[in-house]
Design goal:
Layout (H helix, E strand, L loop, with lengths): L20 H23 L10 H6 L1 H4 L2 H22 L11 H11 L2 H14 L4 E7 L5 E7 L10 E7 L6 H4 L3 H8 L5 H9 L4
Antiparallel strand pairs: 1-2, 1-3
Length: about 200
């Protein structure tokens, strides 16, 4: 601690026209930054947690985080974790399909990339209200698609997040208004499969 807002791996306008510059500026510089600020402020009350990583806090928050700040740490720590991944798994001039072992596992688990994409999009569209859709590895390194409300995330269940889409309205409303379906369809053209593949191939923690 304190945790820091990671810089974007690209410029604010690099994801245009699929994701507009103003959305990226506000989303990263205001929303994500606020989660980091609020997380650090809460953890000032628990200096004994200073050596813990974000993942450790989120995985064991019921056991190690004092009750007085537990909800704040879960919500803002989750927001920090999810957004940090979200920015990294997008890139300009991206999209396409995964390759290598991840592509093989998607074929094995979901019956092909098209079926995977359909199921993942359905998870994003089916999340009522604010939340996220995820491709994750379970404890046996099997692929799963899920969605979570608010800032809940796979780390809360000791699972590994590979791919995520943010379906809070602030992620898309300036450009797409209430048309979440258009945002989800456009987002596939931003997915940085090189980074997702790297995460899949990396040894589990």
């Amino acid at each position: 601690m304190p945790f820091n807002l990671p810089p974007l791996p690209y410029s604010h306008d690099a994801l245009e026209p699929l994701m507009d510059k103003m959305t990226v500026e506000i989303h990263h510089g205001k929303h994500h930054a606020a989660y980091v600020t609020n997380l650090n402020k809460a953890l000032e009350q628990a200096p004994e947690l200073a050596s813990k990583t974000l993942e450790e806090l989120l995985a064991d928050y019921c056991a190690i985080v004092p009750e007085a700040i537990r909800t704040t740490v879960r919500n803002n720590g989750g927001g920090h974790f999810s957004h940090s991944l979200y920015w990294e798994i997008m890139a300009p001039n991206a999209g396409g399909k995964p390759v290598g072992k991840l592509a093989e596992e998607i074929q094995k688990t979901f019956g092909g990339f098209g079926a995977f994409k359909e199921k993942f999009s359905a998870a994003a569209m089916g999340r009522f209200g604010s939340g996220w859709a995820w491709l994750q590895l379970d404890r046996n390194r099997k692929l799963e698609i899920t969605s979570t409300p608010l800032h809940d995330n796979p780390v809360n269940e000791c699972k590994q997040a590979l791919l995520v889409i943010d379906v809070w309205e602030h992620a898309y409303y300036l450009k797409y208004q209430n048309r979440r379906n258009e945002f989800v369809a456009a987002w596939w053209n931003l997915v940085n499969w090189k980074e997702v593949n790297r995460r899949y191939d990396a040894p589990s923690k």
